[in-house]
Amino acid sequence: xxxxxxxxxxxxxxxxxxxxxxxxxxxxxxxxxxxxxxxxxxxxxxxxxxxxxxxxxxxxxxxxxxxxxxxxxxxxxxxxxxxxxxxxxxxxxxxxxxxxxxxxxxxxxxxxxxxxxxxxxxxxxxxxxxxxxxxxxxxxxxxxxxxxxxxxxxxxxxxxxxxxxxxxxxxxxxxxxxxxxxxxxxxxxxxxxxxxxxxxxxxxxxxxxxxxxxxxxxxxxxxxxxxxxxxxxxxxxxxxxxxxxxxxxxxxxxxxxxxxxxxxxxxxxxxxxxxxxxxxxxxxxxxxxxxxxxxxxxxxxxxxxxxxxxxxxxxxxxxxxxxxxxxxxxxxxxxxxxxxxxxxxxxxxxxxxxxxxxxxxxxxxxxxxxxxxxxxxxxxxxxxxxxxxxxxxxxxxxxxxxxxxxxxxxxxxxxxxxxxxxxxxxxxxxxxxxxxxxxxxxxxxxxxxxxxxxxxxxxxxxxxxxxxxxxxxxxxxxxxxxxxxxxxxxxxxxxxxxxxxxxxxxxxxxxxxxxxxxxxxxxxxxxxxxxxxxxxxxxxxxxxxxxxxxxxxxxxxxxxxxxxxxxxxxxxxxxxxxxxxxxxxxxxxxxxxxxxxxxxxxxxxxxxxxxxxxxxxxxxxxxxxxxxxxxxxxxxxxxxxxxxxxxxxxxxxxxxxxxxxxxxxxxxxxxxxxxxxxxxxxxxxxxxxxxxxxxxxxxxxxxxxxxxxxxxxxxxxxxxxxxxxxxxxxxxxxxxxxxxxxxxxxxxxxxxx
Length: 753
Known about the structure:
Layout lengths: L23 E6 L7 H14 L3 E5 L2 H7 L4 E3 L27 H14 L3 E6 L1 H12 L1 H10 L5 H6 L4 E6 L15 H22 L2 E5 L7 H10 L15 H8 L1 H5 L6 E5 L11 H20 L7 E6 L2 E6 H16 L3 H7 L2 H14 L11 E7 L6 H14 L3 E5 L2 H7 L2 E3 L18 E2 L7 H10 L4 E6 L1 H12 L11 E5 L15 H22 L2 E7 L6 H10 L3 E3 L7 H14 L6 E7 L8 H11 L5 E6 L11 H24 L1 E2 L2 E2 L7 E7 L2 E6 L7 E2 L4 E2 L8 H7 L27
Parallel strand pairs: 1-2, 1-4, 4-5, 5-8, 6-7, 10-11, 10-13, 10-14, 14-15, 15-22, 16-18, 16-19, 17-18
Antiparallel strand pairs: 2-3, 8-9, 11-12, 20-21, 22-23, 24-25
Helix pairs in contact: 1-11, 2-3, 3-5, 4-12, 7-8, 8-14, 8-23, 11-20, 12-13, 15-23, 16-17, 19-20, 20-24
């Protein structure tokens, strides 16, 4: 749901279900296709209809706009059903020469005026969006010409005097400045990583070197993030071409491989259009859906004076950015690369690109430091296993070695710390770990409270100076117990950091935890299959139970990504009345062409309304109208290969945690020893809105519901209404919190000319 605060007196009583009455919105996809475009189209159509607007599909991009006729058709609720899980764009996209001519744009304008369409939602790359802005700026001129030529009446021109435009960036290249992620980027990374994992197994069997070419045009994002996520030995990106003499450097790095083995044996693989295909990832579906909602709101709130905007996500915040500012910065990057100003190019690409680049540079090659620090840092996994834990361990270990520390691996969580299952871990011990699911170190749920004596003895025995605790809610509680034990045990007075890693995403201090993205994709792809089965048999409702403990994150997000009719969670109390309303909603749905239902239920959402209860209720009430099936997904949600996001997130968190510990250790060094007993020497490293931040464990206690093992405030609750609107519930969407127009240009002044 939109965020940021616009002055709330603009429309204090604006009813979102009436905002669009008398307005018409057209949606088109243009340029290269990208996975997730369909999610954006679906959301735009359904939210448009929800506001009372008329919505039209424009088929075949700008070509359809110019040709008109059957290419511009009214969209209905049902016409966007079963679109979410399809790659590409269902309404088609075409490269269009005609729209580049003024005559072509006149024809397009006439087609829109005749249908009374004055709101255009364009999903495409920067070229498509620039074209849309040009169209908007010459709109009144086009209308004047059309009136003169007798193609439209003066009354028609007056009724459509102004064109509003909102863009969403759909491009796998992630080359649009001002947006963290463009629609399709995450899915493209999924395709690439699948291939990399497959190639790695054959490369290892033959001791071969593989060179992999990925897409991205003039943007190195896909190559860079893949290199980071798979620990590639080298990466070539346009923003930072290699220095002169790079060949020698590369040969040094691969020396043992080249000389000691088979002589040089390389193979190249060009990935090509595979990267643009396949089903969209959970992230791209949620991104497309959230942006579709924001796009409709931006269109309906636009005035002749507001600049054309793009809607996008920054961190987990929906933002609106002036279209032409983003295009300008995107052009600035190309100019910087052309002029050889590569440092500038990387800065202009934005913070997240820069962070990826810096992390990659540090972790890619062995640069053992000249001086050892004589510091011992121990790493452990706590709680249930999840995908991405190993990526965090690998980068923590490597970053520690780069800093000159000795790294220690603790097996089986706090148990292992108490029983001395501790051993040194080196650079090569962790190679290839990023792509492994589960926990290589072994993990346990045991808390340290009962074994504090033994733990303090082992901290002394192994001379441990700092702890990296990677895990779920138990990692947080365990860390807290160690901090509280500092009064009694001096050994616990060492810096420690907790890295949230759990499928449940329930660790206080972080909007996301490692492992949740992988679990979300597993649930989503399972729901896709279930929906396919239901679509075949017709009149069938599936009730699916998800994990998450008391945290409804997985159920809610999977509900959005898979297009569920309802998602029951603990945080949003529901009564028998609500269950009844949901059943009635499905009875109505069975009268349409979409004869199937999908209901998600978080495992602990209600002690009495169990999955069996819900199943029995729906079965009884649906008699003669629909039948029910139930699926409990279980532990498959904790396994599997980590997604690109979890590999990358784990890698960044691991590296950042050790850099922070190194600084803390310097602060806490007194009279030849380390002594840390301030609250800020034991922190959770978490993702908050747009940045990775360290927050003292003790400070987070107030925001934690220890009984139900969840944070008291959770950002994702405010996007639940979107799921309900997309499932055709007439609920009120809170439009008082608006995404303000933000600016991207302001950063330019700071750059060296």
